[in-house]
Specification:
With about 250 residues, the protein is mainly alpha-helical. It has one domain: Transferase(Phosphotransferase) domain 1 (Transferase(Phosphotransferase), domain 1), CATH 1.10.510.10. The chain has ten helices and five strands; from the N terminus they run E-E-E-H-H-E-E-H-H-H-H-H-H-H-H. The protein has helices at about 25-30, 35-55, 125-140, 145-150, 155-165, 195-205, 220-225, 230-235, 235-240, 240-245, and strands at about 5-10, 15-20, 25, 75, 80-85. The chain starts with a strand and ends in a 7-residue tail after the last helix.
């Protein structure tokens, strides 16, 4: 998460200050060819690690649920690490249950909302898993859902992915065929491995599963990411040791 610099409380006026120093948002970077495969893996790992921490919870507190996870709410710092910068809908943990607010008619960000379990009054960490799956799909396909897509009523990215992935089932019996939605341009990236692409595609599809109970936990997602050949090969660059350290409050 973006680190807090400080806060001020002056009567009814409240102010929180965060250290951004961001290079760009993941939303803006996803379609760009200059955003490499390795950089995308770094984002995938960082956000998965954060969500795993937030969803873990403690015996006396329920897990945190971000609820409005969006590629536009993830910034990259000067070292290329992803930072979540919007907590306007977060609930759980030490916070009051915000899903009880009768005026809270919003349950996610457009293009990332879970249409299967994200209804009013139904709050689950599986909604964050769904949104993470959408972000993961964007990272490997270079697709983002734009305002223009909405105006002409194009399918959401998860709808497109489910259709394309299902269409590839006819070839699934062929052992040489790997079901992958990775953008073809990544084949020329020196750090890309087709096996990685197929594994990440399968993982993303599990995250956006229509049945939320069959979606993986973020702990399972992170564990799967850490087994990828690209992660093992570039562990120092990706900050794997840092991800494996126990999270501390305030860091």
């Amino acid at each position: 998460m973006v680190p807090m610099y400080g806060f001020c409380a002056d009567g009814e006026h409240l102010c929180a200050m965060y250290v951004f120093q961001a290079s760009d948002s993941v939303y803006n970077l996803i379609p760009k060819d200059s955003f490499t495969w390795l950089q995308r893996i770094k984002v995938s790992l960082g956000i998965a690690s954060l969500l795993k921490f937030l969803h873990t919870g403690y015996p006396q507190y329920p897990p945190f649920v971000v609820r409005n996870l969006d590629a536009a709410h993830i910034l990259l710092d000067e070292n290329g690490y992803p930072r979540l910068c919007d907590f306007s809908m977060i609930t759980g943990g030490i916070l009051p249950d915000r899903t009880l607010d009768k005026n809270d008619n919003v349950h996610g960000c457009y293009g990332h909302m879970d249409p299967y379990s994200g209804k009013k009054g139904n709050c689950s960490d599986k909604q964050d898993v769904f949104a993470y799956g959408v972000i993961l799909l964007g990272l490997i396909t270079k697709k983002v859902y734009t305002h223009e897509n909405r105006q002409v009523r194009l399918p959401f990215d998860h709808e497109w992915a489910q259709r394309e992935y299902k269409a590839s089932e006819s070839d699934s019996d062929k052992k040489t065929v790997q079901r992958s939605l990775v953008h073809e341009s990544f084949t020329s990236d020196p750090d890309f491995n087709s096996a990685d692409g197929a594994e990440i595609t399968a993982m993303a599809m599990e995250c956006i599963n229509i049945c939320d109970s069959e979606r993986p936990t973020m702990k399972q997602v992170l564990r799967s990411l850490l087994t990828l050949p690209v992660v093992k090969q570039h562990a120092p660059f990706l900050g794997v040791n840092k991800l494996l350290q126990p999270h501390k409050i305030g860091h």
